[in-house]
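Archive transcription. Copying these from loose printouts into the bound notebook so they stop getting lost. Printout 1 of 2:
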Amino acid sequence: MRQISSVAVQAEKIYTATKSICWYNKTKLLNKFYLLQNIILIKNKKLFEIKKDVKNYKIYADRAEINMKNFVINVKENRKRLETFISSNRNDQNPIEVFEAVTPSKIEQNRSYYAGVLNEGCEYAPIPLSIALSHLHLWNKCIELDENVTIMEDDLVLNHNFFDLRDKHINTLKNFDLLVLGFNTDWPVEIDFGGGIPKTSLIFSDDVSDRNLTDEQFCFPRLNAFAGACCYVLTPQGARKLREAVFPLTKDTYLLRNANSFWERDFHYVAWNNLGIDIAMTLALSKLEARICLPPISSPKNDWGDSSMQRYQHAAC
């Protein structure tokens, strides 16, 4: 009772303060509360009615804090990568749990457990298979928790304001299965803006922008294809859809648009064979409400010299 009362007092202070918006954004309450239809909710339980006009406080709902588990996949034997990840992305307000990655040796030791994850003819090498199964474990965790999760790989660099931006984007989208927040930029990304606009392929250059991001720059088109499953938010519904569509892994191909030139839509299609989890996810995207954050708010170092994957395992022909 004392804890609830304390939160109620804090909430009352917010609603009576004249300049409370900035104060609220900087305050972390043990029990999160949200402004919804003139009612204060604490863990979805009605606490008290708000007497003031709700329209003056809509920003509270827009900036509502989101509780979410964050996972980073790391091979136990490669602690150096984990230490680099932690030093680059330390955030005490949003703890990131380390998920010990599946490895080829674990698959070998637990053959019966992992039996049936590959269809006949599917040619996943041991390391790409291990990566795929690591993601599968976290999809199952998402379903078990019955809440959204953020899944990251350990070569990732997060935007300095990553968690605030992520939460704001989730509030903006509201209904989705998968939200990709980071991806490889050395590979085409295929998106669909809708509204009769032609489907689009994004090609990134080596020239790095020195401009700061602003809120107005973000958009979230439908995602058709991407490489590098390094950072994404997944809903329980999305996890179920992905698990059903991706496993068992199949010998399949995605036809990727490849430009002959940048003029007059001169392109052809190349076969992108299912040899990695990002390709398997791409093949499943049409069955999901999948969105991508543009520009991304995280980026992988994507150093092929330090990667568990080999370049030939991630090629189109």
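Printout 2 of 2:
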Amino acid sequence: MKTLIICASRYGSTMEIGRWITERLPWNDVALFHVKEAPEPDGYNFIFLGGGVYNEQVDKVLVQYAETHLTALEKKKIALFAVCMDTRGVYMKGRFWGGWLYLSPLLEALENITPIYADILHGEINPKNLSEKDRALLMHFYTKILKRDVDDVPYRTLMNKAEVWEFVEKTMVRMKGRY
């Protein structure tokens, strides 16, 4: 099955997860692209759309790709994933934050397209790679929201190849119409 994996990755974690997806798929006709270089989806049967989470949603460039190619995507099998540190989300200040909500803008952009599967996968924060803007946003998060006494964004990784492979395996089961 001709497969296109499109990743919105600022610092490399989502692209690494895209490579792990490629490894686990049971066929060889797989193309992996950063969203900014991704081709039209017309020549593919199966599309993975995945992005890192920034400002409480998957990267906006991935949402824009979906909006731009909506007509072509309507005819495809699609799986979605978001990459972040906290995959569960939280209820705070009278509302839900994070978790599955990260995928909401992408699902809304896809309008009436129902993906065959979606998941929230663990990522990584490497402070030496961050832009100044992202560093400032994360410092605000750590010091003002989490109330932690930190001088810099801490390095954290929760990336897990077994988790990604399980995502692929569950996607394959759903492709066969099973749950």
